[in-house]
């Protein structure tokens, strides 16, 4: 009986490792989509934006595959306690990554309609810097979840306020820019919604970090996530 139990345990471990490998691949695709969307914006590269939009199908497909494999793993292995929490955490985190892919696609769609003569006035560079921070958060949050690293997860949570502050600064700059000329209103609104999508991707990274914290400690963080307020969310 003991040998059979060990065989079942090993089979579950192998299935879980495969599931986590797919999850890490999904994280990489989501991070790549955000990075390439920000680069397409900065260069006003419509072809690159189109590639980001097209690549979202792969993200959606892999997320759906992870959900199906996780459900199958639960049905076949009937994991309990911490093993079940781990599978459920991967399922929830995969949903967050799929949303990140959607945000990258939204950025690319907005980039496609920005006039090529639009003076971005450094704002696209701010979006790129935001994106760099968010992709780092996503990478660390997914590693924290797979590694059950509560310390790394908490570090990711604390950095969410940095993304909020960058977004708030950009919003105020764009508002001033719009006040200078009616011609700036359209491009500025597009850039505002682009920045908002990046900020929401940061929220998803924080959500994954909270799942990692729960997996590592058995409880959700007791302190509310730090946020930098803004009078208008746009």
Describe this structure in words.
The structure is a single chain. The chain is mainly alpha-helical. It has six helices and no strands. The longest helix is centred in the N-terminal third of the chain and has 42 residues. The N and C termini lie far apart (62 Å).
Write the layout of secondary structure elements.
Layout: H1 2-43, H2 46-77, H3 81-113, H4 123-147, H5 150-180, H6 185-217
Helix pairs in contact: 1-2, 1-3, 1-4, 2-3, 3-4, 3-6, 4-5, 4-6, 5-6
Short description:
By secondary structure, the chain is mainly α.
Question: What is the name of the CATH superfamily?
Answer: Phosphate transport system protein phou homolog 2, domain 2
Assembly classification: single chain
End-to-end C-alpha gap: 62 Å
The biggest beta sheet reads:
none
Keywords:
mainly alpha; 6 helices; 234 residues; 0% strand; Methane Monooxygenase Hydroxylase, Chain G, domain 1
């Amino acid at each position: 009986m003991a040998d059979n139990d060990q065989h079942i345990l090993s089979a579950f471990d192998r299935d879980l490792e495969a599931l986590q490998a797919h999850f890490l691949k999904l994280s990489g695709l989501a991070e790549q989509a955000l990075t390439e969307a920000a680069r397409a914006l900065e260069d006003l590269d419509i072809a690159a934006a189109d590639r980001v939009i097209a690549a979202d199908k792969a993200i959606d497909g892999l997320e759906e595959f992870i959900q199906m494999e996780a459900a199958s793993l639960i049905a076949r292995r009937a994991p309990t306690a911490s093993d079940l929490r781990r599978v459920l955490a991967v399922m929830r985190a995969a949903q967050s990554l799929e949303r990140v892919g959607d945000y990258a696609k939204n950025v690319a769609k907005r980039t496609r309609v920005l006039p090529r003569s639009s003076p971005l006035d450094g704002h696209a560079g701010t979006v790129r810097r935001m994106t760099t921070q968010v992709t780092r958060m996503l990478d660390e949050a997914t590693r924290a979840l797979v590694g059950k690293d509560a310390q790394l997860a908490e570090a990711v949570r604390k950095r969410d306020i940095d993304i909020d502050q960058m977004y708030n600064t950009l919003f105020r700059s764009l508002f001033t820019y719009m006040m200078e000329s009616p011609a700036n209103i359209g491009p500025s609104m597009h850039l505002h919604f682009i920045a908002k999508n990046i900020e929401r991707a940061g929220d998803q990274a924080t959500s994954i970090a909270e799942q990692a914290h729960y997996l590592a400690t058995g409880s959700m963080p007791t302190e509310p996530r730090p946020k930098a307020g803004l009078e208008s969310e746009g």
